[in-house]
């Protein structure tokens, strides 16, 4: 009789008959653990009438009850608020503001009379108290505990009977019955499963803080993201005060919403209308600038593209970008040289966004091209113009996704002309030039764009 696999990888589930240091499937070290010999067979159990399978058409639908956190931007990301019994995993880089935001959520919930338990495994009670005092999060219904033992935390849940639980962070909590170190794959799996089960049984929402690895993914086994209901990621450049919150998984709402926050000395603040954060404050039009309407989730945000073109001082021209994809900028430069007749082979080109935002979508191609052309010619574009469009290698300009939403946001912000109607003129001019087969252009395609 063949032997049953007695060892399994905690990351991918690969099984083997003997212990090995490295998983043969996912190639991870130290993830193969003994699981014991499984049972030879499981007898079928009788199913009570109340739990019998029913046709899906006979089931009634009802929206999950929610209660708002008091922070509108966080509620937007969650889908309208917190669902009782939901488990939310909040991840992000160190220092991005995860603990500060969740402490603010705890204070808002406590101010409504709900009892909140905030468990910190990284900071002492005095440190959390100082941060709460600095950010104005002192509430009598907010209970603090500094614990790293799983059994003790479960006891705190039983004795406190809170309406909201926050654990910061799941990688610092350890199960005494597990001999591995805290933060290891097996420990994180056991801790997350136990806390999730306790939250589901009590119908209490649970917010978990998770560390990330150097590549930005959640630290620990992949099963951690499968256990929770919502995976929210905090994103932002530590050199700027702007923070974004996105969800990569949400069982109770959409995953394309984005919450905007600003980190200040008094805590983290909501930014309900971030339309002016990514625009310069110049009163007069400047050469080398063009505004585009970028999409962040469902939000349409105006972003100013800035370009600088100067003669190259070396044999190899420089291409320096900030906030945009370097490969797309290189493609736009090549298209401008080939189809618009702008000689940039001996020019240094610098492209950047305003406000520290990162734009990688193809809808910003046209704004980048116009900013570079404007800088090359030292000609400023009109202030009421915004450019949205994707540029192909053939020189065509395609309409970007969600064009109506972008156009509506542009009109709301006072941009009277969105280069989308002008795109057709540019496309026709480029097509005529290519069809004629002329090596030297007789008509500049960019002259069809208003302002040139």
UniProtKB/TrEMBL annotation:
Positions bound to ATP: 92-99
Domain of life: Bacteria
GO MF term list: ATP binding; ATP-dependent DNA damage sensor activity; damaged DNA binding; hydrolase activity; zinc ion binding
Residues covered by the RecA family profile domain: 63-212
Keyword Transmembrane: no
GO biological process: recombinational repair
SMART domains recorded: AAA (SM00382)
A GO CC term attached to the entry: cytosol
InterPro entries (alphabetical): AAA+_ATPase, DNA_repair_RadA, P-loop_NTPase, RecA_ATP-bd, Ribosomal_Su5_D2-typ_SF, Ribsml_uS5_D2-typ_fold_subgr, Rubredoxin_2
Lon-protease-like: annotated span: 348-452
Motif mapping: RadA KNRFG motif: 249-253
Transmembrane segments: none
Keyword DNA-binding part of the UniProt annotation: yes
Protein family membership: Belongs to the RecA family. RadA subfamily.
Role of this protein: Plays a role in repairing double-strand DNA breaks, probably involving stabilizing or processing branched DNA or blocked replication forks.
Domain writeup: The middle region has homology to RecA with ATPase motifs including the RadA KNRFG motif, while the C-terminus is homologous to Lon protease.
Name of the protein in its database record: DNA repair protein RadA
Gene: radA
């Amino acid at each position: 009789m063949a032997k049953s696999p007695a060892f399994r990888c905690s990351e991918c589930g690969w099984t083997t008959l003997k212990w090995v240091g490295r998983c043969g499937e996912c190639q991870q070290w130290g993830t193969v653990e003994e699981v014991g010999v499984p049972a030879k067979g499981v007898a079928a159990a009788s199913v009570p009438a109340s739990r019998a399978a029913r046709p899906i058409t006979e089931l009634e639908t009802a929206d999950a009850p929610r209660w708002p956190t008091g922070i509108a931007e966080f509620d937007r990301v969650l889908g309208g608020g917190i669902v009782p019994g939901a488990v939310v995993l909040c991840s992000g880089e160190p220092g991005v503001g995860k603990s500060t935001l969740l402490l603010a959520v705890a204070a808002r919930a406590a101010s409504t009379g709900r009892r909140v338990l905030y468990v910190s495994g990284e900071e002492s009670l005095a440190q959390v108290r100082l941060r709460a005092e600095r950010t104005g999060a002192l509430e009598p219904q907010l209970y603090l505990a500094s614990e790293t033992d799983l059994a003790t935390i479960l006891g705190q849940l039983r004795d406190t009977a809170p309406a909201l639980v926050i654990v910061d962070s799941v990688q610092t909590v350890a199960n005494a019955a597990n001999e591995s170190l805290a933060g290891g794959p097996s420990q994180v799996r056991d801790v997350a499963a136990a806390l999730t089960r306790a939250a589901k049984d009590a119908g209490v929402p649970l917010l978990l803080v998770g560390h990330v690895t150097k590549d930005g993914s959640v630290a620990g086994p992949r099963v951690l993201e499968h256990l929770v209901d919502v995976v929210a990621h905090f994103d932002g450049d530590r050199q700027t005060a702007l923070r974004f919150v996105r969800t990569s998984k949400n069982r109770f709402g959409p995953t394309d919403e984005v919450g905007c926050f600003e980190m200040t000395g008094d805590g983290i603040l909501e930014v309900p209308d971030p339309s002016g954060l990514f625009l310069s404050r110049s009163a007069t039009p400047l050469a080398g600038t063009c505004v585009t309407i970028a999409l962040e989730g469902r939000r349409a945000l105006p972003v100013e593209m800035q370009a600088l073109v100067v003669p190259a001082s070396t044999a190899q021209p420089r291409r320096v970008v900030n906030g945009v994809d370097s490969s797309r900028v290189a493609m736009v430069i090549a298209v401008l040289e080939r189809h618009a007749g702008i000689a940039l082979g001996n020019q240094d080109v610098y492209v950047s966004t305003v406000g520290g935002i990162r734009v990688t979508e193809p809808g910003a191609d046209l704004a980048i091209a116009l900013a570079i052309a404007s800088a090359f010619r030292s000609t400023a574009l009109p202030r009421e113009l915004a450019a949205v469009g994707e540029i192909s290698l053939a020189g065509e300009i395609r309409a970007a996704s969600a064009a109506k939403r972008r156009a509506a946001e542009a009109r709301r912000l006072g941009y009277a002309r969105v280069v989308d109607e002008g795109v057709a003129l540019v496309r026709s001019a480029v097509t005529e030039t290519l069809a004629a087969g002329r090596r030297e252009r007789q008509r500049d395609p960019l002259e069809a764009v208003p302002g040139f």
